[in-house]
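Its record is quoted verbatim for completeness.
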Amino acid sequence: MTEMADSASELESDTSSIDGGPTSKMTHPAQLELLQKRVQSLQQENRVLKTELEAYKIKCKGLQQENQELRRASVSIVSK
């Protein structure tokens, strides 16, 4: 139940921050349009963040492989 209340207050907060005032003063179509824009914005941000995450995963995998190679080389040098 608290999650729903939190979501509702976040939603109101989001729309208030967009137009600079309380949502109760807005007409229904205006609220809907602002919320649709907010959803689109969040979806775009989500796509960007997913792409960024994938790039970091690839970079991390490469660094892990490099680390393994360096450890093997280090063991090889120490054993000589």
